[in-house]
Amino acid sequence: MNYPDSGILSRNDKKQPDTKQPDFTGTLDIVCDQCGASFTRRLAAWLRESRTGRKFFSLSFKPAQQHSGDHNQHGTSMDDEDVRF
């Protein structure tokens, strides 16, 4: 993302019929006001309809998957010593 505290949402073209997959997917970039850390979240949205016929979005936010190396919730790398068994 180019702007802090912003995101993008687009239609899920890979959605299979009759599944619980989201109608829309995207990402959300959040910057913590207290510590300045930035977090990326996956965003999923389902188009729903209320009993009165009004349409609305149901949303879900989850941490973005890390593709290289293990990171903790604050985005910093974890050493083997940080993992407790």
Description:
The protein has one domain (6-65). 0% of the residues lie in helices and 41% in strands. It contains no helices and 4 strands. The protein has strands at residues 6-11, 24-31, 38-49, 55-63. It is elongated. The model has no long low-confidence stretch (mean pLDDT 82).
The arrangement of helices and strands along the chain is EEEE
Please give the radius of gyration in angstroms: 17 Å
Fraction of helical residues? under 10%
Query: Overall mean pLDDT score?
Result: 82
Helix- and strand-based class?
mainly beta
Percent of residues in β-strands: 35-45%
Annotation, overall tally of beta strands: 4
Number of helices: 0
Task: Give, in spatial order, the strands making up the sheet with the most strands.
Answer: 1-2-3-4
Q: Flag low-confidence runs.
A: none
- First-last Cα distance: 37 Å
Tell me the count of domains.
1
